[in-house]
Amino acid sequence: MKKTFFHSLFFTTRFYLILGSTAMLFVLAYFFPALYPIALVIIGSLALLVVLDVIFLFIAGASPLIVERIIANRFSNGDDNNVDIRLVNNYRFPVSVTILDEIPFQFQLRDFTQKESLKPGEEKILRYVLHPLERGEYEFGNTNVFLRSPLSLAQRRVVAENGQMVKVFPSFIQLHNYELFSINSKMTEMGVHKKRVIGHSMEFDHIKEYVRGDDIRRLNWKATARRGNLMVNSYVEERSQQVYCVIDKGRSMKMPFEGLTLLDYAINASLVFSNIALQKGDKTGLVTLAANQVDVLAASNKKVQLNKILDTLYAQETQWQESDYEKLSVTLRSVFSQRSLLILFTNFESVSGLQRQLPYLRRLAKYHLLLVVFFENTELKKMSQEVVHSTSDIYRQVIAQKFANERKLIVRELTQYGILSLLTTPQQLTMNVVNKYLELKARSLI
Q1: DSSP result, 191-205
Q2: Residue 205: how many CB atoms within 10 A of its CB?
Q3: 3-state secondary structure of 443
Q4: What distance in Å separates the CA atoms of residue 52 and residue 152, rounded to the nearest whole number?
Q5: Which of 162, 168, 217, 437 has the fewest CB within 10 Å, making it most exposed?
Q6: Residue 193: CB partners within 8 Å, gap ≥ 6?
Q7: How many Cα atoms occupy the beta-carbon half-sphere of 3 within 13 Å?
Q8: Strand pairing partners for 373?
Q9: What pLDDT sits at residue 198?
């Protein structure tokens, strides 16, 4: 009991200031004896007030304050996640609290505190926001609360042993945002645009009577002859097509932008894209590519498929070796029995880097519709547009422009061999991939 008491008792800055001032007064009393009685009165009053303060703080028993951390069982990577601290004051007098929550080390917040005042019997919920930048397990420790009475000479520490582990998954908050905007028909506000359907390579649905505005090229002459009225064919968008997100986990995807690696951007975009493809009726799957391993999650349009994709994406990590595209082409050729849309998330830094993998990309494009998605280096672009002031600045700008031009040459090289490409900034990756998919659906290329 004594150990608990002494481990919970702390003194405030106010106490030490008064004590220090009194000590100085005793020193001055050596030279001015008239100050000695005043110093005695002050030190006596301080001792009495401290004893009263300690009694007030510890008289409430074992649970003077209820402390509860309210947190989701999983966080969304790259998004703001809320953490709530619920406080209930069981004292009969107002208290001031200082909260030190033991946040996971990944956030590197070593001086995180929150302060609040509570009236007698009052309940409050304090909220703070965490922004994780890595997937994985995050361990929360205890919540430490320091209580002070109106005297504020001593303080009592209350420790809520509420340590818990939270898993950080790919950005499901972004996924929910896209679903919400889709329901509210506000996808255009996020940059996703509907594409006008072109051509006739759609699935036949039924024959209906011609009405003004129907495409006369869809007239069904045999049905018109039988019925004596103009009849037209009605089509619907093709469904149940296979769409795979192919994620390169090589060293080139370890490059960071605004705290997230390119792999994390690709993972977040794959999750949102897979959900939209499922809503469009297509079958979605996942392929991950590393140095010596190609893992395939078979495409499906079942409701549980999105959870399977989320669980698979959660554990992906970048590798330091270069990915084996030859093994990728061989594996997909043997596993996939029908033509599919392959969206390859990778990052080619130079034309020479592309040319090493180009034979295998051409082999994939021969049997599937291949879309290569790679990233624009926004920092290099910013550097190439800066105003130069010295010779060294000119050298850096020329090099930045050279690397930026390499990206355009990569796009040209892929187009030359009939391979679709998408050059995008990491921040706009999700919207651009979704728009490209809708465009391919509208053009009936898949």
Answers
A1: T-------SS-SEEE
A2: 11
A3: coil
A4: 11
A5: 217
A6: 187, 435, 438
A7: 0
A8: 345, 422
A9: 42
197 part of a folded domain: no
Q: Return the CATH number at 67.
A: 2.60.40.10
Q: How confident is the model at residue 193 (pLDDT cuts 50, 70, 90)?
A: low
Are 286 and 434 members of one domain? yes
Task: Report DSSP letters for 240-301, one per residue.
Answer: --EEEEEEE-SGGGG-EETTEEHHHHHHHHHHHHHHHHHHTT-EEEEEEE-SS-EEEEEEE-
Q: Please tell me the distance from the alpha carbon of residue 250 to that of residue 286, in angstroms, as a whole number.
A: 16
Place of tokens 């919540």: 143
Q: Which of 147, 174, 179 is nearest to 160 (CA)?
A: 147
Number of domains the chain contains: 3
Question: Dihedral sign, CA of 87, 90, 93, 99?
Answer: negative
| pLDDT tens profile 326-338 | 999 999 988 888 8
236 and 329 in contact (C-beta within 8 Å)?
Answer: no
The angle formed by the CA atoms of residues 275, 279 and 281, to the nearest 5 degrees, is 120
**Sequence-separated (6 or more) residues with CB below 8 Å from residue 223:** 207, 231
CB-based contact 61:118 (threshold 8 Å): no
pTM: 0.72
Residue 8 lies in a domain: yes
Q: What is d(CA 74, CA 86) in angstroms, rounded to the nearest whole number?
A: 19
